[in-house]
User: Fold this.
Amino acid sequence: MRSCAVLWAGAAVLCCLLAARAQNSGCGICDTHRDGKCDSSGGTGCSCTLNIGPDVRQVNCKKLIPKCLLMKKESIPGKGGRRPKPAGALVDNDGLYNPDCEADGTFKARQCNGTETCWCVNSAGVRRTEKGDKQTKTCPELVRTFWVVVQMKRNNTDTVSDADLKAALKQVITQRYNLSAAYISNIEFEGPYIYIDLMQNSSQKAAGDIDIADVGYYMEKDIKGDPIMHPDNKFQIPINGNNFLVQEPLIMYIDEKPHELSMKRLTAGVIAVIVVVVIAIVAGIVVLVITRRKRGKYEKAEQMKEMNEMQRELTS
Assistant:
């Protein structure tokens, strides 16, 4: 009996060890970021972190990580001091920058990128005003991006029905990115192009809901082949047992309030192009005028020659 008790105790200890190991192995993968680290050794459940430069941030690896934190991580060089330039970075004229984030990972309304020049952004982190001096530039509120348009192009000639493709895209968005289907406003097709409308205004978004701007950012990275999620969590659009391929993503943002950008501040390159075009147009007009004048003088000379010849004939 004593030996049986010892065996039972040993078996119980072994089961506990195996259970702990299984828990730790299952906790070791951060689904929503390839560099995320998860650990349950502290005895308080699964705790996940993400290194962002010198800082270690607590993250929820079962939900999309806020776009502001993702951009911040990409913009800060690693330990080696060098970082490969992200393919495409942002569909934004200002490109990738190191943003200032709130404690919950949302963008601060004013961004300066460590300089004395600042600008205002929307909730997707895209500049929506002209740039100004740090001392005078103010941004009273973070204007919400309520509409995100995800444009992509078919990458193959597979023949699939629009209904099957629409169902597959909805499944990817709801399952991979955990966005509620209520925020998928429309999916339509125009030739080789696919358009997905994600809409989520301030009154609709509840606490804990995935932000459509984060979905757009993750989706852009997935389509470009630079995924943020763990390598085991591959991006696929399965239809009838095959992976439907897409390419050339373009993310467009529409805010709840009109943006304040204008053409007042053009870059030197844009100004140079405009100057060249204007000069070319003026030169063309000048050449046309000169050509017409020469042609007119030539026609007048011919007319005078003909009149002189007629007069000579009459007098003779």
In short: Confidence is low (pLDDT under 50) at residues 4-25, 80-91, 264-271. The two ends are 154 Å apart (CA to CA). The longest strand covers residues 145-154.
